[in-house]
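Listing S7. Sequence submitted for prediction.
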Amino acid sequence: MGSSLKTAKRGGGPRQVTWRGPPRFTKAVAVLRTRHPLPRRWPRVLLLAVVFAGLGAALLMPRAWLTSNDVTTGLHPGYPDLQDRVYVAPPAHVMAATKDAIRVLPRFTLEPGDAGTDTLCAEVKTALGGFTDEVTVRVRPAGPGGKHSRVTVRSRSRVGRGDLGENARHIRALQRAMDARLPR
């Protein structure tokens, strides 16, 4: 098998490269491509690979992602890590911190509501698709003397049966923002 490039050393100077023409095996490759055209098959192969990867990912996804669009802390069996939070602060202080947390979080919008209630409502635009989810936060006194507060968070999709875990992500983001503002 010969190389398509020929190098020669002349008189101690730099090497000179000369071109002898295309390599011999290109004719064999050209013949194979006419018998078995690869470029036409690659889109099908790529499409099948994407489909099988998607099916594999769907099988590995938690079932709660596909079958649930309503998640409440402490109540959903698919998310045992999401529990009510108890903060060492009176309910009024926790409500104010919750409003601040909702205002800071991206894509969260605080809904106007009654000032005297123990419930806050917010809307969240999802990153994928731009769907609107509803987040409801309920703050109740916990423990003696009203020095502690129990916070229950519910996130619900307005559309569809499964949310791909988006509602649980909303709750986790809100709980992280509240944990940064309140002592537990």
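Caption to Listing S7: primary sequence and predicted structure tokens for the chain studied. The chain is about 40% helix and 25% strand. The longest helix spans residues 38-60.
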